[in-house]
Q: What sequence folds into this?
């Protein structure tokens, strides 16, 4: 059990400092920003007597309380002393943020294994070294030196701290966020599978994502993956898929080469989402954060722009999706809302005159149609006929709301990402938008794979 | 020669109106917005006597001047009469914006061919029908019903008007823009190759892009393509690559199936860029708008984030790029600016402490290195150590400026697209930013292909 890392009763920051140019300060500030959490925070510092009004201790041994987790930020040359003190203090877990171990050279690799061995003997679990720390957004705990993730329902494990940090920027943009975040750095003890098991039982985590460079024990990892997948989607991005990538990864986290082809087929067989790039990775998180799993694969498309529905149709076929034939009943129903120029085919090209009302009516009819499982509403925002830039989206979402959001609705607004009113509206409606045909089709592929 | 379409001495808008809910109003407003252009604009309207202070004529025949191009917006049932008047008036070219022809049914196809035949006999060229119009940004002419494109050096031909419109949103975002824009809609007369030839000779157009659904005369098109490619890069996106896509395209512009595989290989052989999605399409335009062609293929990478350089390295290999080995001389030079933890390898991971100065110094040393042709500067914006979100980019661009911008410099700022200060700085510096490893590697692939 590693849950105490995410929900510790007490935390010691060893290497806290008043110097804003040090990571020990960044972690301290982040942790103290959430003093309202019912945790006891203790600071250990050689240089400072007090930080933000909180007393500093010279050593963890001076702290008059039991400590669940110790976060270590002291330079590598002091690590042995500090680890010994943590053992003496009988902490439950240690997060070693300090870098300069296995990612540097063989000597460092030896060193970090030695530390783990020592801690294991004392019954202490270790995260890191060379990591940014962990976060538990559900209780407002940021025990890392990166920014606090936007809160949400994604449990994230990242072997790279900075990739975690960058992902938070993307999550912010997409109005999605984390329940928990862990960066395992060199990953010498606590492993992906243990955190996966923890996320499996965590009630707030509904989606799991992983950035991984190397997996030490593939079999155990896959076992945990198979256990969680029936309950929660897992999205994986693997760094070091190629020779160049593996070489870079070995400098980064001291990773050993992992056979990507083998890993890929096992992961896909298990039913996880394996992304080949960061755009698909974020898109996957967005998809599962906002859209329900469909009951079937039949897609209906409406559009005000022939070009965008042509491009979507291409992507749909490339992803093996299924554009359905409209029933005669549906054709008859939609025709009463459309001008005679419109051909009653899927995709339904309502041309540039289609306004909010048209979008509302047609989206609703498609959502209500028993022979359609997924609705894609394409829009190119019209700069003419006095149309408002968000009116089509408004119509679409209204139709989704009025039909109980039971089917996945994919708003595909071509290059609409710079329209602030759209972003605000989607935030307000707790809905989402896709901005390219690829992203929309990819989202549907993920959803239909989960419904199989 | 079709240059008079883009640089007419006089224009008549047939079907102008005061009603803001009609396309005839949108075109009129757009054209009149640029009254300072030394063109004569005449309006023909049945319903209005005056629009924005400009007198309306009942018929083109009433206009007391020669007319170079007539833009037709009257409903399809009045088209014959209006065409006959244009012939009588001896206009040089006609842009038929009116829809409801070949894209609708066989009858419409017959009709549009009839019109072309009639016009050809009279020596009149035709664009459209079913198009949004044309723009010549160099003289501030927007003869279309969509928004004015941001001005720039891209000549764009789009078979879909709305895709043009959507592309303008993306161009705006990327601070790039058009010299000329033409939407040929059903494309019954003026063809891609003719516009390509025109762009070939146009001094302001430095980059050409095409959205195409069908090409009627592939051989002629490829001839024009081969002629322009040694001078200007051409970026092509084909809608209707698949069965679904072709079906949608046939409703859209009445397109016939084009064998994509054959077209693909011919286009690639000719040396044009063929994109498989809209993101790559915009990325290509951005790449050629901002970056010089490299002298070779050797890439040097610096980063503050191991994860992002691992992900970039994977993409580099996937795109067949060449990460070079650093020379001993370069290693020695860079080492004086770096902390001892840093491994002197490519990618050069300077870890999270690297600041503006570090980025400046290392980027400059790589740009100056005779064994490096292309520099990739990866950044994950650090939310710690009091760093500013744009400081790394500042250092990078300063180094690029100080070395005369001779080599392509690729700033890869992971998910940094929401940082306003970055966007503003890149705009001010007339530089650009890539936000994902895919986009950065793809850009380099395009550039190195041009240098072969």
A:
């Amino acid at each position: 059990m590693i849950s105490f890392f995410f929900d510790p009763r007490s935390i010691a920051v060893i290497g806290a400092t008043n110097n804003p140019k040090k990571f020990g300060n960044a972690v301290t500030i982040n942790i103290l920003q959430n003093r309202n959490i019912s945790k006891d925070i203790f600071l250990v510092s050689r240089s400072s007597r007090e930080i933000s009004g909180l007393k500093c201790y010279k050593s963890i041994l001076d702290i008059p309380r039991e400590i669940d987790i110790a976060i270590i930020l002291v330079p590598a040359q002091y690590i042995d002393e500090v680890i010994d003190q943590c053992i003496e203090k009988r902490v439950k877990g240690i997060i070693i943020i300090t870098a300069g171990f296995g990612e540097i050279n063989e000597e460092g690799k030896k060193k970090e294994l030695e530390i783990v061995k020592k801690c294991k003997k004392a019954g202490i679990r270790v995260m890191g070294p060379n990591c940014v720390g962990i976060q538990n957004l559900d209780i407002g705990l940021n025990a890392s030196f990166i920014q606090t993730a936007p809160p949400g329902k994604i449990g994230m494990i990242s072997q790279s701290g900075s990739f975690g940090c960058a992902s938070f920027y993307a999550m912010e943009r997409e109005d999605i966020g984390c329940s928990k975040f862990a960066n395992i750095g060199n990953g010498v003890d606590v492993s992906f599978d243990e955190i996966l098991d923890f996320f499996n039982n965590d009630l707030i985590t509904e989606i799991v994502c992983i950035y991984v460079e190397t997996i030490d024990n593939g079999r155990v990892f896959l076992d945990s993956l198979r256990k969680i997948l029936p309950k929660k989607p897992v999205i994986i991005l693997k760094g070091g898929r190629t020779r160049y990538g593996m070489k870079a990864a070995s400098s980064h986290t001291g990773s050993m080469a992992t056979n990507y082809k083998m890993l890929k087929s096992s992961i896909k067989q298990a039913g996880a989402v394996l992304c080949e790039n960061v755009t698909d990775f974020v898109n996957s998180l967005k998809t599962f954060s906002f859209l329900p799993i469909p009951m079937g694969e039949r897609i209906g498309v409406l559009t005000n722009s022939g070009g965008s529905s042509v491009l979507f149709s291409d992507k749909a076929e490339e992803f093996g999706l299924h554009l359905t034939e409209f029933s005669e009943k549906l054709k008859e129903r939609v025709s009463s809302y459309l001008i005679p120029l419109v051909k009653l085919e899927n995709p339904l090209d309502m041309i540039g005159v289609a306004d909010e009302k048209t979008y509302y009516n047609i989206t609703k009819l498609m959502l209500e149609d028993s022979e359609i499982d997924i609705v894609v509403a394409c829009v190119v925002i019209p700069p003419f006929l006095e149309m408002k830039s968000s009116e089509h989206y408004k119509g679409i979402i209204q139709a989704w709301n009025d039909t109980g959001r039971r089917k996945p609705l994919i708003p595909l607004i071509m290059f609409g990402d710079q329209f602030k009113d759209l972003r605000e509206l989607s935030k307000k409606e707790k809905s989402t938008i896709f901005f390219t045909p690829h992203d929309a089709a990819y989202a549907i592929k993920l959803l239909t794979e989960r419904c199989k």
Summary: Residues 3-127 of chain A form a domain with the Rossmann fold fold (CATH 3.40.50.720).
